[in-house]
Design brief:
Blueprint: H1 2-12, E1 21-22, H2 36-39, H3 66-69, E2 78-79, E3 85-86, H4 91-98, H5 100-107, E4 114-116, E5 122-124, H6 127-130, H7 150-153
Parallel strand pairs: 1-5
Antiparallel strand pairs: 2-3, 4-5
Length: 156
């Protein structure tokens, strides 16, 4: 029975293979990283408030607050349910807690971008390569006009 459940979850929710690569989180290229360079000496404040330093961040992600995702004692890490602490390179599993369907689509290659070879190494982009983690919805796009019919574009 346990083997059957294991196989079911392996087939239904596959993760990238060991030989595959996942992109590094964008935070690593930020001049503000590592976060602990400032937050390491600050006492965490757990109440919601207007941020005094990160004024460029607009938090528009349902009803979440910074410390719902960021670890209070080590800001270079993220919180996952059950008290597990993860790195920024594992953030897809954090996003997957609330966005389970999209996470499943990402693991199966339906959502997100991946490059590589069908029978070889693949490279997977993380959620934050396309989405702002603090305000993940894309702005609405104006649709392009429909294509012209061939008889209107062919030269005679």
């Amino acid at each position: 029975m346990m083997i059957g459940l294991f196989l079911f979850f392996l087939l239904m929710f596959p993760s990238p293979l060991i030989s595959d690569t996942v992109s590094n989180a964008r935070i690593f290229s930020s001049p503000l990283f590592p976060c602990s360079s400032c937050h390491g000496v600050m006492k965490p404040v757990f109440s919601r408030r207007k941020l005094s330093f990160h004024e460029d961040i607009t938090l528009n992600h349902d009803n979440l607050w910074c410390l719902d995702c960021h670890n209070a004692s080590n800001r270079d890490r993220l919180n996952k349910t059950g008290g597990k602490i993860i790195t920024f390179n594992e953030l897809q599993s954090l996003c997957g807690i609330c966005h389970g369907v999209i996470y499943t689509e990402w693991t199966q290659g339906v959502h997100g971008k991946r490059t590589g070879y069908w029978n070889g190494e693949k490279h997977y982009l993380l959620c934050t390569d396309c989405h702002n983690p603090h305000s993940p919805r894309f702005n609405p796009l104006r649709p392009e006009p429909p294509p012209l019919r061939p008889e209107k574009t062919l030269r005679r």
